[in-house]
Amino acid sequence: MTQPNNYPLAPELETCAWFNTEQPLLLGALQGKIIALFAFQMLCPGCVSHSLPQASALQKLYPTTQLQVIGLHTVFEHHQIMTIEALQVFIAEYALRFAIAVDQPSTIESQPLTMTKYQLQGTPSIVLIDKQGRVRLKHFGHIHDLQLGIIIGRLLAEPNN
Amino acid sequence: MTQPNNYPLAPELETCAWFNTEQPLLLGALQGKIIALFAFQMLCPGCVSHSLPQASALQKLYPTTQLQVIGLHTVFEHHQIMTIEALQVFIAEYALRFAIAVDQPSTIESQPLTMTKYQLQGTPSIVLIDKQGRVRLKHFGHIHDLQLGIIIGRLLAEPNN
Amino acid sequence: MTQPNNYPLAPELETCAWFNTEQPLLLGALQGKIIALFAFQMLCPGCVSHSLPQASALQKLYPTTQLQVIGLHTVFEHHQIMTIEALQVFIAEYALRFAIAVDQPSTIESQPLTMTKYQLQGTPSIVLIDKQGRVRLKHFGHIHDLQLGIIIGRLLAEPNN
Amino acid sequence: MTQPNNYPLAPELETCAWFNTEQPLLLGALQGKIIALFAFQMLCPGCVSHSLPQASALQKLYPTTQLQVIGLHTVFEHHQIMTIEALQVFIAEYALRFAIAVDQPSTIESQPLTMTKYQLQGTPSIVLIDKQGRVRLKHFGHIHDLQLGIIIGRLLAEPNN
């Protein structure tokens, strides 16, 4: 973290639906906040047992004025099954309260657009974006609560510009 | 358990698909074995976190010569989403190995046929059937592993006829 | 379990103190009940995290008219530390409610007398004694709740004599 | 955290023994590092099941050049049982690897000296000390890993002076 100016800017999310938010969230409009983006699929066991509960806990711990938790449903397989309608039921049954976007499907490949833009390897993945809109962490697989917390704490401590 | 002759005979399952078995299982052909029937829905959080792992553990502990574990996908809501195709992916992703049947949908009501026949209240539910094909336990919600084990152990100890 | 007459009779416990019981429990006086004997040491992490919670759960599930849970503090190391006074505090802090005996120390070796009589390998160990006072299970290490339950259920189903 | 100059300086620990360190740790010599001080008693169930595993996880995640984890055995009850000898066995059995100090007993009251100096209410308690040796968090009871991580991350991000 010695040369923060070298961190890449987080590309805007490409989405086709949102849940738990009155309007779509634009990263550009969230500058000044830390964004914790949790990429998941509703039929990914590791997401269900570890990643989504972590996202929920994080959302409860911190006000959205400082930290914005966003779930991103990045369907890269079984598209006919993990539909927007199925996701809606999933969100209700699992009582997820944080903002959740559906990654825009590609017309030419199985990976959706945001997943490709961010070069995510699979689910669960977590992306942390700093106050200036730069990608500071991209992690595939689960990450320990303590470790994630320490990284977020560091980012929260940074100046706004 | 003092008047076992009073226990109702378990009605045959009404099913429209099976997984993890070469052919559909008929209760009538399983006499002499204990049957542990786990009714679930793939979008039921309590089923995913407690009941299905319990069914898997039970299947691993006991050979099917004595105890037959059967999962029953009793879809009573969100039928358009919890389809047979979705269940197939779910079974693969969660690596479930025990025999799983799909409860036959009703043409007139949301509850499927077996669920109605057995008067199940919801998911998860567990039904234990003894060696003579009688319903000995019908439980809605999770049941402690020790408690379930003790009941199964008692049934295993009964004579075959 | 085909030749139950071959199972060895459980030798009487050799104890020097009891907790959570008005008077010492004699195996001979418990005939007709299943006895679940949990050998432990208060400074054994596996006992604290798995075995003692299992004993507590078992005690809560079944009335002592049918099943008697007994903890046995089998100190075979660090005798100066795992004293009766320390055990008393441990039982209070961990809110253990089942009957607990202290295995009688040997005057000539580190293993206490009951541990030697039962040829226990270490802690945690569980011993199941049937209604006729015979040892039916002796297991070193943790045992899955379902598996333990099934064995106990089988023993509960046996006739009293 | 707007007026950091108002945070009280962490008083030096009063100790009578140390484990897992070649020499006693002086807070004064740790300036520039974050110190996570976990006050515990070996017969405190909440410490054993939550707080000490958290301390171990924290120690593994961060090098001691930036973050120093210290366990503090603050015996305020049952002094005859939770002796230094008993603690030594406890540390070995639970495989604790981080530095652990024994809080110096008082000659006049049950609370040991450091516990009194820091006005700790009981165990488990956690105290976080910043790079300049000031107390920034004092928490009685367990604290969520994410929450603890975020606070530590903020402290790690502060300048050394």
From TrEMBL, chains A, B, C, D:
Residues 23-136 form the Alkyl hydroperoxide reductase subunit C/ Thiol specific antioxidant domain. It holds the Pfam family AhpC-TSA. One of its GO terms (molecular function) is oxidoreductase activity. InterPro entries: AhpC/TSA (IPR000866), Thioredoxin-like_sf (IPR036249), Thioredoxin_ResA/DsbE_sf (IPR050553). This is Alkyl hydroperoxide reductase. It comes from the Bacteria. Gene3D superfamilies: Glutaredoxin (3.40.30.10).
